[in-house]
Amino acid sequence: MFTSRVRRIGVRSIALAAPLSLSVANAVECDMAQVATHRGDANITSIYGANEGIPSLYYRANMDVNTDGAARSYHPSDPRGRSLALNNIANAITGIFDAAGNDVSCQPRSGACFTRFIETFEAARDADYNPNGHPRIETRHVIPWSQPQNSDWAKPCTISGGPNAGHFVSQTALLVDSRKDECDQERYLDSLRFKANVLPGRAVWRSQGVVTDEGDLVVARERSSGRINFAVNGDVGPATSIGEGSIALAASLSNVTLRGNETYDEIRALAHADVDYLIFPRDDIRRIVGAGTPFTQEDIDRAGQALFERWGGAERLDACAALPR
């Protein structure tokens, strides 16, 4: 799902002198075995886990761009993401219902189905989200809702002030500052500032009995360039989808510095076809910086690089990259 916010992102990555050969003609071994299989809409992906040493997981997939957590992700006046928003509102909606309360959700969200999502949203918006006798939408875990004091029903939260006032608040599973209110954008992981991976919904991937979830440190490597970035598990996506990263991560893997005024199409173009993902399920950035302490991308970079080197670094990742996909 897509997101945004206008600010320059400093690209901090490890760029290797040349693309990696990905051959394992050396003494270093990956030392991982298959622990799970992810079945997607079109692909089956093998998930590998370390049986000893530092708990770790590896898989290979593409990288679509997730905008959630950025203040410009969604706007009520721009449901198709043509001017104000970096994403179309259909990507934020988890269910649509007609005026009689019947679930009219459909798949895949293209063509007539996409139009149904957009038109149902517009009808709900134009009725001020009144669920009584009007079409209704749900945005669970993507846009939070609250009930204003002068209203008899809940409405999706919007940003009240600043340059992004009027945009919907965009949630992420990982919270940067849990002390902030649910309708405060600063509570969530900003896709433009933080490098983050998106886990498939209902994924239960274990290394040495430890299940990965939000907050765990991640290494992402774009295979054609060999460029490495450090990230965290920042959000959860559809159960059938694998291979998704924040705007900051996708841009940095391309060695692109964001201008701050990118369009929806430009954000989508940051996607990658082939990425190595390495996850450390025991190493949660929140525990590393201290419970309740807001963390920064610099914290992620520092902790991720040190852990990656202890794990075996790029040489061991080369060996894992030769595993069957």
Helix content: 10-25%
The mean pLDDT is 91
- State the shape: globular
Q: H/E element string?
A: EEEEHEEEEEEEEEHHEHHH
Distance between the termini: 24 Å
> How would you sum up the major sheet?
8 strands, mixed
**Secondary-structure-derived class:** alpha+beta
Number of helices: 6
Low-confidence stretches: 1-26
Q: What Rg is obtained from the alpha carbons, in whole angstroms?
A: 20 Å
> What is the count of β-strands?
14
Strand content: 15-25%
What's the gist of this structure?
The chain has 325 residues and is α+β, with helices and mostly antiparallel strands.
What features would you describe in this structure?
There is one protein chain. The chain is α+β, with helices and mostly antiparallel strands. The protein contains six helices and 14 strands. The protein has helices spanning 111-126, 247-253, 264-268, 285-289, 297-311, 313-321; strands at residues 32-39, 44-50, 57-66, 95-97, 136-138, 145-146, 155-156, 196-200, 206-207, 210-211, 216-222, 227-237, 244-246, 272-284. The strands form four sheets. Strands 1, 2, 3, 8, 11, 12, 13 and 14 form an eight-stranded mixed β-sheet that branches. Residues 1-26 have low confidence and may be disordered.
